[in-house]
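Supplementary Methods S3. Input chains for the assembly prediction are listed below.
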Amino acid sequence: MATHTDKRYEEELADLRHRVLEMGGLVERQIADAIRALVTQDVGLADAVVLKDHDVNRLDVEIDELCIRLLALRQPAARDLRFITTALKITTDLERIGDRAASIAERAKELQTEPQLKPYVDIPRMAEIATRMLRESLDAFVRYDADLALAVCHEDDVVDKLNSQIFRELVSFMLEDPAVITRAMRVLFVSKYLERIADHATNISEMVVFMVKGKSIRHVSQLPASV
Amino acid sequence: MATHTDKRYEEELADLRHRVLEMGGLVERQIADAIRALVTQDVGLADAVVLKDHDVNRLDVEIDELCIRLLALRQPAARDLRFITTALKITTDLERIGDRAASIAERAKELQTEPQLKPYVDIPRMAEIATRMLRESLDAFVRYDADLALAVCHEDDVVDKLNSQIFRELVSFMLEDPAVITRAMRVLFVSKYLERIADHATNISEMVVFMVKGKSIRHVSQLPASV
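Predicted C-alpha cells for the full assembly:
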C-alpha cells in the first residue's frame, strides 16, 4: 500500500517537472516566433504569438493546481517541499515571459508597415542569449543544479550591456533624423522586453540557488563565483 | 495540547498576514520616496531608496521561509493552504515592485542634473493610482475580498491610458527638440516603471480572485463586472 502511494507520488512529482519544462518550451517558442515575426515582418505569425498566450496561461493554472494538490495530499518533506514551492513561484515568471513575447509580437505588428531602420542583428542575438538563459534556468531547476543556475545569473550582464548598446544606437538614430523617433522607440521597447525576459530567467535561477543551497544571492553587490 | 497548537498556528498565520502587509507598506514608501526624489531633484533621497531595497529583499526571504515552515509543520487545510501558497507568489511581485521603485530612483538621479522638461503632473498622479492599487490588492488578500481585488484589476486601464498619454506627449517633445531626447526617454522609463507597478498590483489581485473564487480571470478579453 505504502509502495503504491510512493509510486503515485513519484509520478506526480515527475509530472510536475515535466509540465514546468513544457511551459518553458512553450514560452521559448513564443520568443523565437515573436522575433521571427519582427525580422520577417510576418503579421500572421505575430498574431499567432498573441493568441498562444492562452496556452501559457492554461499551463500556469494547471501547474499551480498540481502544486497545491501535492502540498495538500502528500505532505512532502524538506527537499520536495522546496521543489514544489519553487515551482509555484517559477510559473509566475514563465507566465510573464509569455506576456513579454506577446508584447514583442505587438511591436512587430506595428513595425511591419514601415521600412526597417537597419537590419536586425543585436536584437536576435539578445533573444538567443535570453532564450538560452531561460532553458538553462529550468534545466538547473529540474536537476537541482546550483552551479548552472549561478552561471545563468552571470550571463545577465551580457544582455544588460547589449540593451544599453541598442539604446545608445537608437538614440543616435533619433538625433540624426527625428522622423524615425516612433519607429526607434518601438525597437527600443523590444530590446527592453528581451532584457526583462533575461531578468526573469535570472530570477528563476536565483530561486534555484535558494532551493538547492538555502542561500539568497539576490541583490548582492557582487555575484559569488561559486555557491 | 491541541488548543495550544491551534493557538500557535493562528499566531503564525497572523504573523504571515502582518509581514505581507509590512512588506507592502515598505514598497509603498519606496515608490512615494522615489517619486519625491524625482520631483524635488533630491539625490540623497534617491540613494536612500536604492539602499532600502535590501530591506524589501530581507522580508521577501523571511516571508518565504515562514510559508515553507507553515506548510511543513502545520499541514494546512484547503483555505489556509491557498492563503499560504498565494503569499508565496505575492512576495515575488512585491519584491519586483521594490526593484521598479529603485529604478525610478536611478532615473531621478540621472535627471537631477538637467532642467525639467515640464512640471511633473501626470507622473505623480500615476504613482498615486498605482500605490492605491497596490494597497488595495494587499487589503483584498488579507481580507479574502474578491470584489475589492476585481476593482483593482479594473483600475489598471486608467494607468495604461495615462502611460500612453505620457508616451505621446514625450514623443512630441522629442520631435520638437531633439536635444531633449535623452531626458524625455528617462521620464518615459519612469512612466513605464509605474505602469509595471500597476501591473504587479493587478497580478496580485488576480491571484486573490483565484484564491477566493478558484477562478482564473487572467488574460480574459473582457474582465467580469463581478466575481
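The CA atoms of residues 39 and 119 of chain A lie 8 Å apart. The radius of gyration of chain A is 20 Å.
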